[in-house]
Design brief:
With about 325 residues, the chain is mainly alpha-helical. The chain has two domains: about 230 residues, no CATH class; about 70 residues, no CATH class. It is about 45% helix and about 5% strand. The protein has 14 helices and six strands. The strands form two sheets. It has a three-stranded antiparallel beta sheet. Helix 6 runs antiparallel to helix 7, helix 6 crosses helix 8 and helix 10 crosses helix 11.
């Protein structure tokens, strides 16, 4: 890692520590110990039947595993270990309806009620996979390489198919093995932070592939892995998309760059659409444009024309024979990007 980046992170660490914004290593160890005593593999393996189901999956019970993973935030166990908050309770594979007490599975589009025996069977399956995943992490060496984490990913996929590739499953494992897994429970977040650290993420899909990068960086900086995660969140913010805009109309390389630079705009081709003048006057004209677009815009680019940008607004205009998006707000050009 670049020396300047190391220095930046260490300065942030010193500042946040002085301000009391990072939990001490002793406090972290106490929190992890509390979680393991309540929900570690030995504890889950000792349960069965309805007690197992309630302990893992009853959201309304503040002593349940899913409650601790998603909602718990107090002196005993603060929300300090990466969030999985939001979305449907079906992300856990099963949940209990408050209104009726029935156990439910399925998707937000289509749910199905389960009998008690069926719900217990789901809890047993999840328990067995959580125990199996913990055993895999127990056997992972502390100085594991990218290849070791690739094997971990493959074994998780094979042995823990219902919990391993979920945010809640990843959070469970990261709380048991905080020295081996980061607290970014979504793969897109892991890759985003690696890119911001000027690293190319490992090839492949999964929540465990990239963990070794964060582990090694924390060791290199002499930081707790949890502290590194908080530093990266403060430094990098939330993931966002990158948009690449070509500067050619595909007849000559970069032959539209002068137009964009001098006009302060972003240009796209699609000349078959013609002049847009008048299309924004009323709803009827806009409907005509919407009908015209599928016939005039190449399929491989059509989604770009209709997909909203998360951090700005663009307006299509016709300028000197080219479709253009005037760039609003600050922007810059970097050669080769």
């Amino acid at each position: 890692m670049m020396q300047t980046l190391q220095e930046e992170l260490l300065k942030m660490y010193q500042k946040m520590t002085a301000e009391g914004k990072l939990a001490s290593a002793a406090r972290l160890a106490a929190y992890y110990g509390t979680f393991r005593r309540r929900f570690g593999p030995a504890q889950l393996a000792s349960l069965d039947g309805e007690a197992l189901l309630e302990t893992i999956h009853n959201h309304s019970n503040p002593d349940s595993l899913v409650y601790w993973l998603e909602f718990k935030d107090d002196e005993e166990f603060p929300a300090y270990f990466g969030s999985i908050y939001g979305g449907s309770a079906l992300k856990f594979g099963i949940y209990r309806r408050k209104e009726t007490g029935a156990w439910v599975t399925g998707s937000p589009v289509e749910t199905r009620e389960l009998s008690l025996d069926e719900a217990v069977a789901v809890a047993r399956k999840h328990r067995d996979q959580l125990v199996a995943g913990a055993a895999l992490l127990e056997g992972l060496p502390r100085n594991a390489s990218d290849e070791d984490y690739l094997r971990l990913q493959q074994e998780m996929d094979a042995q823990c198919p219902n919990v391993g590739n979920t945010a809640w499953g990843h959070k469970y494992f990261s709380l048991l093995y905080p020295e081996k897994l980061d607290f970014f429970h979504v793969a897109d977040y892991q890759r985003f932070h690696l890119i911001k650290l000027l690293q190319e993420p490992p090839e492949g899909e999964g929540r465990y592939l990239a963990a070794g990068r964060f582990v090694r960086l924390a060791a290199e900086l002499g930081l707790h892995l949890n502290h590194l995660g908080h530093l990266l969140v403060i430094r990098n913010g939330r993931p966002y998309r990158y948009w690449r805009v070509g500067t050619s109309d595909e007849t000559e390389p970069r032959n539209r760059w002068d137009l964009m630079r001098d006009g302060g705009l972003v240009a796209v081709g699609w000349p078959d659409l013609g002049d847009l003048s008048g299309f924004w006057e009323n709803r009827e004209q806009r409907e005509k444009l919407r009908a015209l677009m599928p016939r005039s815009i190449p399929i491989r680019r059509r989604r770009w024309a209709t997909r909203p940008h998360s951090s700005g607004i663009f307006f299509l205009v016709w300028w000197r024979g080219t479709w253009c998006w005037p760039a609003t707000g600050p922007w810059c050009w970097e050669s080769g990007r």
